[in-house]
Amino acid sequence: MSSDRKLTPLGEDFSAWYNEVVLRAELVDYTPVKGSLVIRPYGYAIWELIQGALDGMFKATGHENAYFPLLIPESLLAKEAEHIEGFAPQTAVVTRGGGKELEEPLVIRPTSEAIIWPIMAGWIQSYRDLPLLINQWANIVRWELRTRPFLRTLEFLWQEGHTAHATQEEAEAEARQMLGIYRRFMEDWMAMPPVTGRKTEREKFAGADRTYSCEPMMQDNRALQAATSHNLGQKFSRAFEVKFQTEAGEHDYVWSTSWGASTRLIGGLVMTHGDDVGLILPPKLAPIQVVVVPIYKSSAERASVLEAAERIRASLDRNVRVKVDDRDTLNPGAKFYEWERKGVPVRLEIGPRDVAAGQVMVVRRIVFGDAERKVAMGESEAIAMLEGLLETMQAGLHERALDRRERNSYRGLKDYGEFKQIMSQSGGYIYTGWCGGEECESKVKDDTKATIRVIPDPEFRSDDAPDKCIACGAESTNEVVWARAY
RNA sequence: CGGGACGUGGCGCAGCUCGGUAGCGCGCCUGAAUGGGGUUCAGGAGGUCGCGGGUUCGAAUCCCGCCGUCCCGACCA
Predict the structure, then answer these.
(1) CB-based contact A447:A472 (threshold 8 Å)
(2) Greatest alpha-carbon span in chain A
(3) For labeling, which of A48, A63, A114, A293 is most exposed (least CB within 10 Å)?
(4) For residues A457 and A212, what is the distance between their CA atoms, to the nearest angstrom?
(5) How far is CA A171 from CA A58, A130, A162, A256, in A?
(6) Residues A86 and A194 in one domain
(7) CA angle, corner A23, sides to A22 and A28, nearest 5?
(8) Is A264 domain-assigned?
(9) A242 and A253 in contact (C-beta within 8 Å)?
(10) In sequence order, which residues have a C-beta less than 8 Å from that of residue A39 and are 6 or more positions away?
(11) Pairing label, strands A290-294, A322-324
């Protein structure tokens, strides 16, 4: 039966396609708890690669990892007014422990500001203790009404950075620096180029002074808020009494930031690069970059083919994540489909004919330009070119994603009717003028489901940005980027 | 939480209108052959039909209630 072997085509039903890909590429599995998913070994391996890369970037900029607890006394969460207002509806709360009602309910962290700041307050007395640069890798729980694998689940994995600074300028620089790190990670590792910028008041983090965001475009032309960085000003330090003595001997509240990225990034990876066959992984984040599929008939052939496969694996092993698929239970064609569905960038096929000729068949998961998908190559030649090929594919995926984003971006639009038409059909990023009024944001959202993703950073702004608000026609204060989002 | 669709071996589904004790494909197990794009044959295991109640001699099928999943919305990383 071939019907359940093929995926729903991406262009036919993007949601169905996405769900099928994450399940059939063995990234996730469902559990008895609604909206709470297992990340399977193959999916978790991608997360570990993401973690490794981001963690290195954080440490290179002076951050240290720590771990704060899962449970937060309800009263602490309530200390920052905007924060509790924003998060209270989404929290899970523990009311019993050890068989008794608790005197004070404990909130399962929806984010950790409220437990981190009361504790870090004790670590800071003087300007000499600043900046304090902490990151943690953790799980958090937000009681979402509607969930989707990776994109929105009850529990998810993320990292959250929390920093304290002596001045507003330093905190702002930190928030911007971390946004830049996320952007660079998305471009260099994920091949998922975001538009970056600042969130509007309506869209910012609950309790932040300013929120910055990375917003890559998915293949259905919707935006994914893929990482955020917040300048919290002194809101949290005032709420949690985080004070320090300045060089001049005065007392002041610290200036803080927080910034985070989650397993949602994996969903972004799927929706940015996948196709009708399944997942396509950028080589830098592929748990298996090269899979070797041996092909043989007799046991004599099996021995010589596996020997050659092992030789190739060993010579690639130092610089490439390579796996020999020596399972005897599947025929080669079935393995081809499986590894393509799982997004492995390069496959090497090696059979008796190849062993005899000292060659291998090099097959690419995706082809750019006029390259051949499948080419026979001398064994040592293939080994020598593979690293370069992986780099080429990484670059090709980035270029393709960037090109798609820009092709589906609209600039200089002044007519609201046209705006509505684009949003109701293809969707995409629309750059327009905006008066700064929340009423106009609401109106556009009601009309089109699109929201302001960001007030874009300078390098994303249009030369010919319209000077009137798209919704009300009043003088524009900022160019903004609209899109429907996840 | 509002609107829609759907819950039947691991997965995808048929059977339900017109009640009679469950079937197909894939997968799985055993064996043999096969192996350069989802291989074939033979044999085999596996289901109290989402849960609870009701009607009936008899319920996957009819009735009531509940739970869950997916899609579209509201909320949100």
Answers:
(1) no
(2) 84
(3) A48
(4) 10
(5) 16, 11, 11, 6
(6) yes
(7) 80
(8) yes
(9) yes
(10) A27, A28, A47, A157, A263
(11) parallel
Predicted ipTM of the assembly:
0.83
Å: A253 CA to B3 C1'? 50
Number of CB atoms found within 10 A of residue A28's CB: 22
Task: Say which CATH number the domain at A250 has.
Answer: 3.30.930.10
d(CA A10, C1' B77) / Å:
24
- Same structural domain for residues A83 and A151? yes
For residues A269 and A303, state if they share a domain: no
- Whether A354 CB is under 7 Å from strand B: yes
The C1' atom of B62 and the CA atom of A181 lie apart, in whole Å, by: 63
From the first residue on, what is the mean pLDDT of each consecutive set of 10 residues in chain A (486 residues)?
Answer: 64 83 86 80 95 98 97 91 83 86 91 94 97 96 84 91 98 98 98 96 90 95 94 95 96 97 94 93 98 91 93 95 92 92 96 95 95 95 97 98 96 93 90 94 89 96 95 95 92
What ranges make up the beta strands (E) of A166-278?
A: 194-198, 210-216, 227-233, 243-245, 251-253, 255-262
**Closest CA-bearing residue to C1' of B73:** A449
| Strand B proximal residues, A:76-105, Cβ < 7 Å | 86, 89-90
List bases in chain B with any atom under 7 Å of a protein Cβ: 1, 11-12, 25-26, 28-29, 34-39, 68-77
Q: What is the C-alpha separation between A141 and A155, in angstroms, rounded?
A: 4
User: Containing domain of residue A232, as a range?
Assistant: 14-273
Q: Which of A375, A124, A141 is nearest to A243 (CA)?
A: A124
Q: What is the pTM of this model?
A: 0.95
* Residue reference for tokens 């975001």: A194
One DSSP character per residue, A70-127 reads SEEEHHHHTTSHHHHHHHGGG-EEEEEETTEEEEEEEEEPSSSHHHHHHHHGGG--BG
CA-wise closest residue to A54 among A65, A67, A68, A40? A65
Q: Specify the pLDDT at position A15.
A: 83
Angstrom distance (rounded) from CA A163 to CA A171: 8
Q: How far is the CA of A171 from the C1' of B59 (A)?
A: 69
SS3 content of chain A, % helix, strand, coil (to 5): 40, 25, 35
What lies within 8 Å, CB to CB, of A215 at 6+ separation is A194, A195, A196, A197, A223, A224, A225, A226, A453, A454, A481, A483, A485
If phi > 0 it is left, if psi is from -120 to 50 it is alpha, else beta; for residue A312 that is: alpha
Beta-ladder partners of A155: A141
Among A271, A306, A302, A303, smallest CA distance to A292 is for A306
**Per-residue confidence (pLDDT) for residue A2, from 0 to 100:** 32
Residue A136 lies in a domain: yes
